[in-house]
Specification:
Layout: H1 2-12, H2 56-71, E1 79-85, H3 102-118, E2 121-127, H4 130-142, E3 150-154, H5 155-164, H6 188-191, E4 214-219, H7 220-225, H8 230-238, H9 244-251, E5 264-267, H10 272-277, E6 283-285, E7 291-293, H11 299-312, E8 318-319, H12 330-334, H13 338-343, E9 347-353, H14 354-359, E10 367-370, E11 384-385, E12 392-395, H15 403-419, H16 421-433, H17 438-449, E13 451-452, H18 470-479, H19 485-508
Helix pairs in contact: 2-15, 3-15, 3-16, 4-5, 11-18, 15-16, 18-19
Length: 510
């Protein structure tokens, strides 16, 4: 079902008319900043049609920065190839021109500015999917080729196999990429580094970085039906009191659906995002920066699983059937899919990724958006877990000969994405098209300011599962059976430790 949503959301992204982020159609952003925008620093006037959200000051700052970065290298007249999966083609324009589609135009403007500023000829090349990108990249490196100047794709399907193959260049030595800039997720240095070496870069340079984040939707028709105050729910988030206990308290206002009819409290709860939103992690790091997984399950993990499993596995409270006793999937059991169930008011809370909020605007349902809850009100901040299967990153292959060009253009693309891509997806689509109230806009700002990744999630499924089945073990324990959590965790911790050592050996031998 989630793969279906991912495919549909990418199609959905292409339906909204777009007016160029910088108020211009044919001029490069670096050459015309006479744009009517809201200047946050001076309180300037809004544009008449409210189509531009970046400020004059921000546009000028970013364009000055990009021009400065570009001025430090000389690459005019050569080719630049941006390579990634065609099933996430929103990261490259449909055509090398404006089409009127919001995301296609956004990435086209970015491409156009890079061509004009650097004097390069841009080429877009695609693999069929993330796995195909990884295969082609590995073949290219093994042959000593440098056809791909910058690679992008899902962290899980493209990044992990390239890392395992030892074909990625560490980003630590890049001269121009600055992870302290706001267009990069700088926290990756703490969560994805292996013995101090980082191989992935994440930010709005890849649109998928906005679609991968876990959120909670609540059905406004259901809250109205049971006399719940939506504003009180939002205020609990803003006051730092949106906790797991608070979520359970709100849901408890709906009677248990023991008869199998009526409204459920939860639709398809997921497990592992609750662990991360509670401030807990799977991957730890020793003094040398070597990742490891604790061999024994910490007690707070099992306590969390026991609390949530009692609720989520209860068929009178939770509309969930992937692991039910009848071994039926959701549609087989309920004769309806998850999206229709939520739209039809059959549940209060629906646990999804951010991309789903846009997709659900195709339904006749009014909903609010919430972050994943804290473990307790004393927790310092919210933590919004980002799923590495849905998220995207950029990578540098070892055989790229003109690394200075790739390095510099990556930094400039990331900076320009702050104007074009973030504006198009986050502001114009997600914050404008996917919400029904202003409070949800505030919730999105909280959610995206607290995004986190855990390295264990990189290896959580299929043939890429170097961390064992730890993510699946956690998901099982929280959603439907916590009875064997400790032993399942311990067994997979051993697998994880063994494979971590193998990966480090591969990287050290490069």
């Amino acid at each position: 079902m989630k793969m279906k949503i991912a495919a549909l959301i990418l199609a959905c992204l292409m339906i909204v008319p777009f007016i160029a982020s910088c108020g211009q159609k044919n001029e490069g952003a670096g050459r015309n900043t006479d744009v009517q925008t809201t200047d946050a620093s001076t309180g300037g006037d809004e544009t008449e049609d409210d189509s531009v959200t970046a400020s004059q000051a921000e546009i000028k700052e970013i364009m000055d920065y990009v021009n400065d970065v570009a001025s430090k290298i000389e690459v005019g007249g050569i080719d630049f190839t941006w390579f990634g999966p065609s099933n996430v083609a929103v990261n490259a324009p449909e055509k090398d021109e404006e089409t009127g589609d919001i995301m296609s135009d956004a990435v086209y403007y970015r491409q156009r500015d890079i061509e004009e500023i650097y004097g390069v000829k841009w080429h877009n090349e695609w693999g069929e999917n993330g796995e195909d990108v990884a295969d082609k990249a590995e073949n290219e490196v093994m042959a000593g080729g440098d056809s791909y100047d910058l690679v992008y794709g899902s962290v899980r399907s493209a990044g992990t196999p390239m890392l395992n193959a030892g074909i990625l260049r560490t980003t630590n030595d890049l001269e121009y990429v600055d992870l302290d800039q706001r267009w990069w997720l700088g926290s990756l240095r703490d969560t994805f580094s292996i013995n101090g070496r980082l191989f992935f870069l994440i930010g709005p340079i890849v649109v998928n970085s906005y679609t991968d984040t876990n959120i909670i939707l609540f059905n406004k028709d259901v809250t109205a039906m049971f006399n719940m105050d939506d504003i009180e729910i939002y205020d609990s988030v803003k006051d730092g009191k949106w906790t797991i206990d608070r979520m359970l308290e709100v849901a408890s206002k709906i009677p248990e659906n023991a008869s199998g009819t009526g409204v459920y409290r939860y639709i398809e709860p997921v497990g592992f995002p609750f662990l991360f939103s509670s401030g807990l992690t799977i991957t730890k790091f020793d003094e040398e920066g070597t990742p490891y997984v604790e061999s024994t399950l910490p007690k707070e993990y099992s306590d969390l699983a026991d609390k949530l499993c009692a609720v989520f596995s209860d068929e009178s409270q939770s509309m969930f059937a992937y692991y039910d006793k009848e071994k039926k999937d959701f549609i087989e059991k309920y004769d309806i899919d998850q999206e229709d169930a939520f739209a039809d008011g059959k549940g209060l809370f629906y646990f999804v990724n951010a991309a789903d909020a846009l997709y659900l605007r195709n339904y006749d349902v009014s909903f609010g958006i919430l972050p994943m809850p804290k473990l307790s009100a004393s927790q310092k901040q919210y933590y919004s877990f980002a799923n590495s299967w849905l998220g995207g990153a950029v990578y540098f292959l070892k055989t790229v000969k003109n690394i200075s060009m790739s390095d510099s253009i990556a930094e400039s693309m990331a900076a320009l994405s702050q104007i074009y891509v973030k504006d198009a997806y986050y502001t114009k689509l997600l914050k404008s098209q996917a919400i029904f109230d202003m409070e949800s806009r505030d919730m999105l700002d909280i959610i995206y300011s607290t995004k986190i990744y855990d390295m264990a999630d990189l290896y959580a499924g299929g043939n890429l599962d170097n961390w064992g089945e730890i993510i699946n073990v956690i998901d099982k324990a929280i959603r439907y059976d916590s009875s064997t959590f400790a032993s399942d965790y311990r067994a997979n911790a051993r697998v994880a430790s063994m494979n971590i050592r193998m990966l480090i050996k591969t990287l050290d031998n490069d």
